[in-house]
Write a structure and sequence with these properties.
The protein is of the alpha/beta class and 467 residues long. The protein has 15 helices and 21 strands.
Length: 467
Amino acid sequence: MATPNTHYGAAAIAQMIDGAKHIHFIGVGGVMMSSLALITHQRGYSVSGTDRTQTAVTESLEAAGIRLYYEHDQSAAYGADMVVYTVAISPENPEYTYAKAQGIPCISRADYLGYIMLGYTRRVGVAGMHGKSTCTSMCAQIFVDAGADPTVLSGATTACLDGAYRIGGKDHFIFEACEYMDSFLDFNPSIAVILNVEMEHVDYFKSMEQIRTSFGKYADLTGESGFAVVNADDAEVMASVEQYLGGVITFGMENEYATFRAVNLSYNGGYPAFDILLDGEFFSHVQLSVSGKHNVYNALAAAASAHLCGICAEDIAGGLRAFGGAGRRMEYKGRLNGAPVYDDYGHHPTEVAATLQGMGEMGFERVFCVFQPHTYSRTAQLADAYVKAFAAADDVILVDIYAAREKDSRGISSAKLASKIGAHARYVPEYEKIAAVLAEKVNERDAVVIMGAGDVYRLFEHLPLEK
């Protein structure tokens, strides 16, 4: 059971933190939590944190002077004036329960992030059911290459950041705005990007009406002086911002009235090239270094956001061309029997279909996909959509469903899903057997993608890849 988000808001947190000297982070090893801990440390606070596993991220925090503990115990929170926690912790976490008993303010990660970002002039929040990490990373590439010195908090590693976050100047704050459990409603964007809206996180969102309402509230956080950068080709996105009172900047390909529109789309070696029109006039020519039509939308959103922040067309096009992808987003890992092997985080049917379609445009003879479904609720409710999504793959191997926070109460399984997908799909739970199947079947004319948001990446331990 997760610990709920707090919703104190920036003004209340400012009062809580007034006079505080020592701030403790529970679950500090995560991408967002580690970046928040580092920003807090750089602001002059004494910072400590706990996480169960020692990683390169935690080691970097220790090197910066942050005291870490690798066992959850109430003693780790001794002396803290405030506690920041990730909602992934249990409500019985000993540091959390100790802080509550002692009257120490406890603030959820999203709530604290909303407070932190107000220290920056322009705050670009990237939201949407799919593509958030990629679009955030594209923005980071553009801003970094343009010399804008952004502070960035992404959900995926990016080469230009040498990780998943960057502590820069106070002019630009670029962040991934997660919609799960309405976390993004604690943020304070001045530019609210909405890439797409559809049914997702079915353990929390019960209807499209609820989802539209949440995204509409997210856009409203910018205030009348802010901007919503929204997908004109997505009817649900446009419905979400019908009542928005700020400036609306649209992007798209199909809607001829989109503010930023991609035209003359072609593919060079599977990678999209296109012209961007701004209000119907030529803005720039863009050549992407990542595949898939979905990345054209991500690029348009990044371009619109950068333009609003004063970055010129030439620098925007250069940054987009330089962007080589985000970690676990069609990330090249090596070759098996000459076939390129990719690692991808996709787990929703729309993401699966977009990735496989993009691979199809790259000219491979066959596409092999190893997929790990994520959560029983998503797999059960979207099973028919998965069947359509995998039509673009030639060979599909399913491993067991990654339960995450759930227990099996839906009567769904990977074996049942494989049966629904059809003859080109099978259920193989053992990674050693999957590796053997791939080693036997693929050749240099094929491609392989290992896909899922759980721990399916462990398959790479069994694949004899060559660079």
